[in-house]
Amino acid sequence: MKKEITGSQILLESLINEGVDTIFGYPGGQAVPIYDSLYDYKDKLNHILVRHEQAAVHAAQGYARVSGRVGVTLVTSGPGMSNTITGIADAMMDSTPVVVIAGQVPVSLLGSDAFQEIDVIGTTQAISKWAYQIRSVEEIAWAVARAFYIASTGRPGPVVLDFPKDCQVGKGQYKPEKIDFIRSYIPVPEIKMKHIEAVVALIDEAKKPLALVGQGVILGRAEKELMNFVKKADIPVATTILGLSAIPSDHELNVGILGMHGNIAPNIKTNEADVLIAIGMRFDDRVTGDLNKYAKQAKIIHFDIDPSEVNKNVKVDISVLGDAKETLKEVTERMKENKHTEWRKEFIPLWEKEIDTVIRKEIHPEQGPLKMGEVVHKVSEATGGNAILVTDVGQNQMMGIRYFKYNQTRSLVTSGGLGTMGFGLPAAIGAKVGAPDKTVCLFVGDGGLQMSIQELGTIMQSNIDIKIILLNNDYLGMVRQWQELFFNKRYSETTMVNPDFIKLADAYHIPARSIETREELDDAIREMLETQGAYLLEAKVIKKGLVYPMVPAGAGITEILLDDK
Amino acid sequence: METTLYTITIFSENTVGLLNQVTIIFTRRGLNIETLSVSPSAIEGIHKFTITAFADRETVEKVVKQIDKRVDILKTYYNTDEDLIFQEIALYKVPTSKLLESGSVESIVRRYNARILDITETWTVLEKTGHYDESQALFRELSHTTGVLQFIRSGRIAITKSKVERLSDMLAEMKEKVNRKK
Ligand SMILES: Cc1ncc(C[n+]2csc(CCOP(=O)(O)OP(=O)(O)O)c2C)c(N)n1
Ligand SMILES: [Mg+2]
After folding, report:
1. Residue B101 belongs to a domain with what CATH number?
2. Cβ contact, residue pair A184, B66, below 8 Å
3. Residue A496 needs a FRET pair 20 to 30 A away by CA distance; which of A124, A180, A412, A446 works?
4. CA–CA gap between residue A540 and residue A369 (Å, rounded)
């Protein structure tokens, strides 16, 4: 008979069986047995000790987003578990595959308000793809296999495993499990050839087609298929924020970013195109603006893997359900080659307008204080489009997204759907662990950095080499922008009295430098990139900067505010 | 917005917390559940939910898709009353003495197509199967004539008039597809 091992060991064996090599976590009373077992698995499982459980999930998200693998988080019960909730919700919104394993009180105490007990399933069902409570040692390997299968297939998402302590210490035999079928779960809907043909007919006839690309293309590893598709029919490509890097920034067909702080050209042209081809995107309100004024003239095609996204926000003419890697290929094979030279030219004057009214002032200002855009632009140039961009939330995020460039896919990690301040620093840690050979640049605001600043400790302890660029405006800048533009400049609770960030970095032995002038910028970036290991570059930027262009919340997508000063 | 009473039918695995997974989707959109009935289906291990709620068609479509998307849900669909044969069951406990005094037992049982489930010296339990309006009408009449000591009405159960895909066929087909892929 095979040797019996503990439930904790079975958990770790099952994780290794899924190809896991990294865990982001934090121990506690109801997870001690797992951590005890982990002690013997140090050579196979790299555990990164974070400073707050929310960060453990964000780090797992960063890891998953850059590597395409499932991120793993391990925490204790009660407060350890509840601290992960923002991360789980963020992963759900942005379809990020993570598995969160939480210790739990022993089965015999469940429901009794035992010390550090919370109802994990009840609290996480609404924000996770699947949440499951393990109830016996025999179930562990099965539950882990199922968790990874669900998290990583179809439209990915977070899975929560609630793991009572008696199951951790109880003994049983370990038998590796592999799950690739669940009868109640259809990860990839079947392709309907009728729809493919209808789409081909529509695209063949289109005079002014525009592709709207979301993260679905990256999640579905369909970048090449997308490229073949748009090249063959000569279709301009606009991306959502999470769709960025699915196509290289400088590709001639790339016409920019959609939505509230996106580029003028793709937003305006959305309302002029005759056929919109949405691929793996979900018509978020930040992308569409007022739905009553959105693309009324266009026939809309929607490629998606998730049937519940079809007609959710925008009524479409044809939906193509399935894996974009396959559906795009089917469509590309059948459609004819085409040229849309005139239509594509129409984007150019709008780009020129944006350069004149917004971009030049932002990335090449001749005088005055440093601007966020110019810092981002310089860092992007210095890293040659090969770095991974991680952002926090706010003006820093929008500027990072607008002015950073990418050559390769999976080069952007940002909190899109939930817009979670504090996401950036831990996500950057995870991104570096997931892509150790890449330079990881984090742009973060003074507000957001302080929402997870404790993670500087993680960076110190685990020697994480990330470049932190703090765009410090001493304001909760994005909220201040709304107050300036829409609330009569009543700056209610948006000024920040900030600490000395350089001293803070110093306390964690992280080299740091603060700059305030244009003249220092190049040298500071050079120093940052040449430094081995983590580095904090504080750029004291203009205090009352504004992110333009801007489509105000609730306005139509073509009602764009520009910098008219 | 114009709302209609929709009947939503769900087939699911019988896992812990499933009802919560379903109801939170109604909660998010602020939809009230009018009736709910959950019971094992004919297939072992698979449960059937019948839920009624007032909603507009667009909303009910989205809700159904979002329920269907949950990992443990096998199939979800919705119907309006025209598509369905449906019933609820109601039980009425009335004082036996009053019932006998009124002299209308026979007539009530006949007119409402009700039946007597149990009689003791002190109380009698009547059962009525039918639509909401019918069981409500009987409730009103009993309230006037005998008084009602206790009353309970079940959630709706329903069967579609059209021929629908049978769940067992669907399961077999899915299994076959997966096997073919391998
Ligand atoms: C957890 C959380 N709380 C509040 C907000 C609302 N919010 C969005 S942007 C922003 C300001 C961010 O300030 P800062 O981090 O300094 O970045 P800046 O906009 O100045 O670049 C706030 C408060 C949020 N997105 N997330
Ligand atoms: Mg700020």
Report:
1. 3.30.70.1150
2. no
3. A412
4. 8
